[in-house]
Description:
Elements: H1 41-63, H2 67-88, E1 96-98, H3 110-118, E2 122-127, E3 136-140, E4 146-148, E5 154-156, E6 166-170, E7 173-175, E8 180-181, H4 187-194, E9 198-202, E10 208-209, E11 223-226, E12 229-233
Parallel strand pairs: 1-2, 1-6, 6-9, 7-10, 9-11
Antiparallel strand pairs: 2-3, 4-5, 7-8, 11-12
The structure holds the ligand Nc1nc2c(c(=O)[nH]1)N(C=O)[C@@H](CNc1ccc(C(=O)N[C@@H](CCC(=O)O)C(=O)O)cc1)CN2 and adenosine-5'-triphosphate.
Amino acid sequence: MTRMQPPTAGSDRADGEQGGSPPCQAERIAPDYFDPLAVDAGQARDVARWRRARREELLASRAGLSIAARQAIAAAIARGLDALLAAHLPDPRGRVVAGYWPIRSEPDLRPWLARLHDRGALLALPEVERPANPLVFRPWHPGAAMRRGHWNIPVPANTETVEPDVVLAPLVGWDGAGYRLGYGGGYFDRTLAARQPLAVGVGLQAARLATIYPQPHDIRLAAIVTECGLQYRDRA
Ligand SMILES: Nc1nc2c(c(=O)[nH]1)N(C=O)[C@@H](CNc1ccc(C(=O)N[C@@H](CCC(=O)O)C(=O)O)cc1)CN2
Ligand SMILES: Nc1ncnc2c1ncn2[C@@H]1O[C@H](COP(=O)(O)OP(=O)(O)OP(=O)(O)O)[C@@H](O)[C@H]1O
């Protein structure tokens, strides 16, 4: 069995950030993911260590953006989401769309969620109800009462649950094969393993990696949207 070696720090940035090419040309890099059946314990440890290092870098570079830059990114992502949902959810009335309450410099898509709400969509936010379990989704609307959940993430005070038709998954990193790097809890993978919503990753173009070295537990997203538009769409 070939032992996969995650590359050394920084060498796998696919967007040419250090090389100077425009981030939106990242499409030219072929994803180089490996056979998930070939995984072994040592390899899984290497991948986990590599992911921790990438998360730190990606989160630090995102935190370094100005508020204005982040707002422009969020507005562009919102336009990309509108284009995607025009095809997938032309009439959002009564459909459940799960967003997220932004933490750690994630794009703030609450204004976009508020517009969807005005068009009749039902909104939800995720909550870690029990560590190491799938997320649950609570009904939410702009201005709803909140409380502090796991990791101090604000969650709706309302403790009902709903099943979303569409789930936004904030990306710490992502790759061109549709895989997401999150905060390392495995929560979205557990959630998507148990449900079949349209899972849409949203994040920064600069957070693209050549591959996240997908492991057997990693679940491909249905679509990925950045400020440069739709970057990945599955065949469904
Ligand atoms: N805004 C927002 N809300 C969200 C998510 C998100 O990505 N963004 N989530 C998306 O899933 C869920 C919360 N995800 C979490 C992911 C990891 C940990 C956590 O405890 N991380 C550990 C590291 C784990 C490890 O490396 O083994 C830590 O940082 O100490 C907590 C919450 C639900 N709400
Ligand atoms: N379906 C699952 N069942 C059991 N454990 C899982 C599952 N999915 C992920 N995990 C565990 O979660 C750990 C972290 O996974 P990973 O690095 O993919 O997190 P992440 O996608 O970055 O996190 P998050 O979704 O919380 O932001 C993995 O090492 C794995 O053991």
